[in-house]
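Chapter summary example.
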Amino acid sequence: MSPRPTTPPNGRVPPRPSPSPLPPPSTSTSPLPPLLRFGVEEEFLLTGRRSRVTVPAAGEVVADAARTLGPRAQHEFLATQVEGCTRPVTTAAELRAELADTRDVLQSAADRADCRIVATGTAVLPSRHPLPVTPQDRYLRLADRIDGVADQVGAELCGCHVHLGDLTHRQALSLSARIRGWLPLFQAFCANSPFCEGIDRGNASNRPDRYARWPTFGPAPVLDEPGYRSALERLLADGVILDRRMLYWYARPSEHLPTLEVRIADSSADLDTVLLLAVLLRALAHTLLDPHVRARPRLLPDPVLRRAHRSAAVGGLDARLPDPLTGALRPVRRLLPELVEFTAGALRRTDELGLARDLTGGLLATGCGADRQRAALARHGHLSAVVDDLAERTAAR
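The structure predicted for these 397 residues follows.
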């Protein structure tokens, strides 16, 4: 994807840091790195039961859900959105249970507020404007800083973020550099925002185009620890970001957890897609951190990487993307099964190879979220049915 450039409030764009080379792999005699825990943050829209239009019920829903989830039920930038966070876990089975239970609690709270949670990257039906910013100090300051962006059509953006840990800051930055070339593939099979406020804009995922108006959105630069600190200090000093949490790179070291946070995916109604996203990201991390694995990804130039992200957003499963190992353009429907086999050793180590193969086969057979949204429209002929279908699949265990 090729985001539009964003000019900071003072009109100055900080110089782009020079890429650091990928660190060399360790020697083959090194021991296997420890298994990483993982967790997921899911953002949802709140829609009215009868109107199917987004409703500003987050205050009521989060307060209700927090009685069970505690701080894992969270507000988002807009009052029409909520976020549910899993605990960090070690197995796919535990993660599935966490995802299902978190969705159950949020949906029960939404039921009591006469609305539903809907997992999609952008609002399907036209929303009521102006969009209501969550009345918390940081969000109100953020709305002032990005004047005009908050209320753009399609500004209700919902993503699915995977945390990979436990990692040191240095390890998180190294892993961020190594996985860059694969992230368009994850973006493609998680594409789930073909409709944006009543319009099919021809993309499998419209969320990236909408998000491109925000500062720092896009592929993470390749940085070592000093380069990372320098880049953040410059962004803060120039007023591009308010704080360290305003880094919207596709992958970033978490500022409050010992993890790498991967922020590439649209929110997905289908729990299996979320599970596949997390399982394959962790398997890829294990593979790239394994000193015995000789295959190493190419460091794709930024223009090539941005075009790949744009192709993933437009085409979803039908896109053609650069092979991260060879650079040759390949169909997503070939690259995804090949990713499973590339990470097979890591998947065996966590007893997830069969699961990954099954989930991949199911996704390729039924289509990604964008395909399912368009299929729902074709079946029923109106977008309100798409919202209903999304809500039902979001609630399904």
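To summarize the output: The longest strand covers residues 37-48.
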